[in-house]
Design a protein that fits this description.
alpha+beta; 4-stranded antiparallel β-sheet; elongated
Length: 305
């Protein structure tokens, strides 16, 4: 009987405040969708870092005859055969080095023509202008400074470059987008909490006579508050379900179909469905518990019986 009464009161409250309940659902859905999106964006950045950092190399560019007049590091002239042999031997002795590949000027020229052969400047480039280099694969890409310290400024070495810097701007952009999503999510969350509090206040005020009678006949405070808390929790759960649907549809539209980024950007290792599905229970739990907690706190202050 009590459960039936509580359920009937929930239905009455939702019907009386239909507009505000709808606003709560929308606000909770948007805030939780942004929250889930921020978590997925963070995981995507981490996945891309693991994927790409495992493939990038440290490049040790060697001096050629043209660098003698343009680069202070090559003031003594082009790298000699002895210097190249010693550099390669020293690289292979280092514990952090996994593989070493020597790229000749001719190979560098061929790769350049393959990538930029259609540009006007490509016609002016000759093989002797290209730099020889050692492409170094590290066991741990984070230990780039070990190689840089050992070979930067060494005779015959023009520069030491970490290819991670090429990707860092992309990762910084994605992290910036993630921070922006978190900021907007926090703003929407505050709006949702304010709507929940106002909805509970209006509902409590509209039913102050019924709650007063319940108090007179001996009903406990928890029993009186339960319908209001359940209303907020139900609206929040609906918002969580909408947010979960938005995350699933977003993953399907952006990566699999619609924009089909997985097909257009095959070099990017996108997160899978498992990453999305594992975030849904957290989204639903927050959608259920957050409004219930907000309603409970609001009732302690505003429910006067």
């Amino acid at each position: 009987m009590r459960a039936q009464f509580v359920l009937s009161e929930i239905g009455v409250g939702l019907r009386r405040n239909l507009t505000m309940t709808f606003a709560v659902i929308v606000s909770v859905a948007l805030s939780l969708a942004l929250f889930g999106g921020a978590l997925l964006m963070r995981e995507q950045v981490s996945t891309m870092k693991d994927f790409w950092y495992d493939k990038v190399n440290v490049s040790i560019f060697l001096c050629n005859k043209n660098d003698a007049t343009t680069s202070p590091q090559c003031s003594k002239g082009a790298v000699t055969t002895e210097q190249k042999t010693q550099i390669e031997a020293d690289l292979k002795k280092m514990a952090v080095v996994d593989k070493v590949h020597h790229e000749s000027a001719e190979e560098a020229y061929k790769h350049y023509k393959d990538q930029y052969g259609d540009t006007p400047i490509a016609a002016t480039i000759t093989p002797d202008q290209m730099q020889e280099s050692f492409r170094v694969k590290l066991d741990d890409p984070e230990k780039y400074k070990v190689v840089a310290t050992a070979f930067a400024g060494r005779a015959g070495v023009q520069s030491v470059q970490d290819q991670r810097n090429i990707l860092q701007n992309l990762f910084d952009l994605m992290n910036g987008m993630n921070i922006a999503a978190i900021f907007v999510m926090a703003l929407m969350l505050v709006i949702a909490l304010m709507l929940i509090v106002n909805t509970v206040r209006v509902s409590a005020f509209s039913r102050r006579r019924e709650t007063g009678i319940m108090r007179l006949v001996g009903a406990s405070s928890f029993y009186i508050q339960m319908p209001f808390i359940m209303e907020a929790a139900f609206a929040g759960l609906l918002g969580g379900l909408v947010a979960a649907g938005m995350l699933l549809v977003g993953r399907y539209f952006l990566i699999d179909n619609g924009l089909a980024l997985a097909e257009k950007m095959q070099l990017v290792n996108f997160i899978g469905w498992d990453a999305v599905v594992t975030k849904l229970p957290l989204v639903l739990a927050i959608g259920l518990l957050m409004p219930a907690l907000a309603a409970f706190i609001a009732l302690r202050k505003y429910l006067k019986v």
